[in-house]
Amino acid sequence: MSTTYMRSDLYVWDVALANGDIRKLLAAQSPSGFTSPVTSAVRGVAYANGPPPAPSTLVPATAKLGDASFTLHVQGVSFRVGDVITWNGVAQPTTLVSATELTTSVDMTKQTTALPIPVTVRALSGAASDPLTFDLRLT
């Protein structure tokens, strides 16, 4: 685990998970030591304080087979560094825009069947949010 100084009261850790992924964790330092969001690291998996991620809206929420690839915006609350968007159960490269928005790219050339697609946000702890539904249609 490496630590990067960000400013007088904020540090970033690169935590290597058991599966080889590297996750970034932010933590503030109070006069008595480090506080939230890191509470412990067990077997290479870091657990964060605070409420779980709660997505509420997908933008866009629908597309047609054959449409151009696009950026999916997941809006909600309690998003943090390390949260990952899952598309139909598969973790996607995710960008944290803010505590209320995550994004990922959707490659429409890989979408071959019209169906409702569950989209969740998985926290660094591994807990997944309730799913939102992306409507992939024929026309």
When the domains are counted, the total is 2
Largest sheet: 5 strands, mixed
SSE string: EEEEEEEEEEEEEEE
The oligomeric state of the chains shown is single chain
Question: At the third CATH level, what is the topology name of the largest domain?
Answer: Immunoglobulin-like
Strand adjacency order, main sheet: 8-15-14-10-11
- The CATH architecture of the largest domain would be Sandwich
Number of strands: 15
The CATH first-level class of the largest domain comes to: Mainly Beta
Query: Termini separation (Å)?
Result: 49 Å
Based on CA atoms alone, the radius of gyration comes out at 17 Å
Report the helical percentage: under 10%
Q: Quick one: overall form? A: elongated
Mean pLDDT: 80
Question: How large is the count of helical segments?
Answer: 0
For CATH, the homologous superfamily of the largest domain is named as: Immunoglobulins
Question: Structural class, from secondary structure content?
Answer: mainly beta
Strand content: over 45%
Give start-end ranges of low-pLDDT stretches.
Answer: 1-6, 30-47
Walk me through this protein's architecture.
The model is unreliable at 1-6 and 30-47 (pLDDT under 50). The protein has 2 domains: 2-48, no CATH class; 54-137, Sandwich (Immunoglobulin-like), CATH 2.60.40. The chain is mainly beta and 139 residues long. The protein is 0% helix and 58% strand. The protein is elongated.
